[in-house]
TrEMBL record:
Binding-site positions, S-adenosyl-L-methionine: G78, F83, S129, E130, R151
Function in brief: Specifically methylates the N7 position of a guanine in 16S rRNA.
Stated family: Belongs to the methyltransferase superfamily. RNA methyltransferase RsmG family.
Top-level taxon of origin: Bacteria
Taxonomic source organism: Bifidobacterium callitrichos DSM 23973
Keyword Ribosomal protein assigned: no
Predominant location category: cytoplasm
Database matches in PANTHER family: S-ADENOSYL-L-METHIONINE-DEPENDENT METHYLTRANSFERASES SUPERFAMILY PROTEIN (PTHR31760)
Compartments where located: Cytoplasm
Enzyme class of the recorded protein, top EC level: transferase
Xref: InterPro entries: rRNA_ssu_MeTfrase_G (IPR003682), SAM-dependent_MTases_sf (IPR029063)
Protein name: Ribosomal RNA small subunit methyltransferase G
This protein's UniProt keywords: Cytoplasm, Methyltransferase, rRNA processing, S-adenosyl-L-methionine, Transferase
GO CC aspect terms: cytosol
């Protein structure tokens, strides 16, 4: 089944140099994504828009958060099929990505994708976020991250505890969310503050010319 955006100039305009590795990712998703339980049957002809461009919408916010930083480190929590972590890593080759994913079959998928896309700035951590947070508290050699990203992992009440402790001071959470993003932030205000999160806000992030924008939650860490 052809993708609605195959061959569209929007892809090059939005993705630039990342288009080539992301074409490899797109083919793999189209062929294996549904049978391996990574995308739904209705997504097969809209992979570019729903999964790849949607994930790439976080890139400007990650870049803004790491500007001027020596270590441009990003943790992607609950990477699953590779959204947004693999897409962002392809778009930001000067950033170091750690994909945090507990499920073995998804870790295997991510490793195959990293290999086939020839991404050299990605490592995969088979763990739950809480395990990485616990390890970071014990080990001196594990630095907190400049940015934490995620998509559709959990509501903000839970997500705050899984993501904000991974961030360094003045780091930023960049979370792709649905339309209820503001309501989630309002509900999670205490949790966010408890984890030293400040200025939680929702921005409308551009996905591509003529395409419906998405919602991104940004939280800074004090």
């Amino acid at each position: 089944m052809a993708d609605q955006l195959d061959g569209s100039p929007i892809l090059e305009e939005v993705l630039g140099d990342a288009l080539e590795p992301l074409k490899v990712f797109h083919v793999k998703l189209a062929e294996e994504g549904e049978p391996r339980g990574l995308i739904g049957p209705r997504d097969v002809d809209i992979i570019w828009e729903r999964h790849i461009l949607n994930s790439a919408a976080i890139v400007p916010y990650v870049r803004e958060a790491t500007e001027g930083m020596r270590f441009k480190s990003v943790a992607d929590v609950g990477s699953g099929g590779g959204f947004p972590g693999l897409v962002a890593a392809a778009c930001l080759p000067d950033h170091e990505f750690t994909l945090i994913e507990p499920m073995e079959r998804r870790v295997a998928w991510l490793a195959e994708c990293v290999d086939e896309m020839k991404l050299e700035n990605v490592r995969i951590e088979r763990a739950r976020s809480e395990e990485v947070i616990a390890a970071m508290r014990k080990r001196r050699d594990m630095r907190p991250f400049a940015v934490v990203t995620c998509r559709a992992v959990a509501p903000m009440t839970k997500l705050s505890g899984w993501t904000l402790p991974l961030l360094k001071t003045q780091g930023r959470l960049v979370a792709l969310k649905g339309r209820s993003a503001q309501a989630e932030i309002d509900k999670a205000a205490k949790e966010i503050a408890k984890r030293h999160g400040v200025n939680p806000r929702v921005v409308e992030a551009q996905v591509g010319p003529g395409l419906e924008p998405t919602h991104v939650v940004l939280v800074d860490k004090r």
